[in-house]
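User: I've been trying to design a sequence by hand for this structure and keep getting stuck. Would you show me what you'd pick, starting by listing the structure so we're on the same page?

Assistant: Good idea, let's start from the same input. This is the structure you sent:
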């Protein structure tokens, strides 16, 4: 599901879960588990995928098939997975080997630095096209990553962007040839891990402080509203229509 490889003290996590590394209960649990275990053993983490997809986001087929019972279990785990990456105390670098869509984009943007292959991938949050809102931590991750002048466009426009446009909007930092993505990400992780761990961790806490305070203040109520919308019959119908229109057609 997720392969762990060590490059010195850098942990390289490669998602190998189906064709699209779609986020479901099992994959979210594995992300939470590994990021928890690596808190005290890895000096930095590189997260990547395989083939032409980093992650296509939430497994909508599983979500619609499982309905409310599945979603009640899944949504808190999705937030925990995002939280585990976003608030991890050590450097985290996302090596985007390909497409990072919807929840896959959020997962990538939870990292401290994002390296993307020059082709063929696209990145963006398409949640509103599907008809679902963002869990509180997912929204905060996107707020932290996106260039402020492009934030509304990214969130409400629900578009996906090729690498050059994504970098302009703050979704990624570096663009390299596909065969160099993981190596470049490891080098970036090594540079960040050479900094004082205590100073880096505190600086990261400070950089996430406003997001953390908003989550503590209103995250629970927002997630309750998010859950209500995700579980609504009309939303499930929109999700099924989206799957029929896009995923199954492809």
């Amino acid at each position: 599901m997720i392969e762990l490889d060590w490059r010195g003290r850098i942990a390289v996590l490669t998602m190998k879960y189906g064709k699209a590394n779609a986020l479901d209960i099992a994959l979210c649990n594995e992300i939470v588990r590994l990021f928890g275990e690596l808190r005290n053993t890895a000096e930095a983490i590189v997260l990547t995928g395989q083939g032409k997809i980093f992650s296509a986001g939430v497994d909508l087929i599983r979500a619609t098939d499982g309905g409310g019972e599945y979603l009640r279990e899944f949504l808190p785990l999705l937030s925990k997975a995002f939280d585990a990456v976003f608030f991890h105390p050590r450097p985290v670098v996302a090596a985007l080997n390909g497409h990072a869509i919807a929840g896959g984009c959020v997962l990538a943007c939870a990292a401290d630095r994002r390296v993307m292959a020059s082709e063929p991938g696209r990145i963006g949050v398409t949640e509103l096209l599907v008809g679902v809102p963002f869990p509180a931590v997912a929204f905060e991750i996107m707020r932290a990553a996106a260039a402020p002048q492009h934030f509304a466009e990214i969130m409400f426009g629900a578009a996906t962007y090729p690498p050059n446009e994504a970098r302009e909007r703050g979704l990624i930092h570096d663009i390299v040839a596909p065969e160099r993505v993981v190596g470049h990400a490891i080098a970036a992780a090594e540079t960040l891990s050479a900094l004082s761990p205590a100073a880096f961790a505190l600086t990261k806490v400070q950089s996430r402080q406003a997001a953390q305070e908003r989550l503590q203040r209103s995250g629970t109520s927002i997630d309750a509203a998010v859950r209500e919308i995700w579980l609504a019959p009309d939303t499930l119908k929109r999700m099924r229509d989206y799957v029929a229109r896009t995923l199954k057609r492809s």
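That's my pick for every position. To get oriented when you compare it with your attempt: The first strand starts at residue 2 and ends at 7. The chain has one domain: 2-179.
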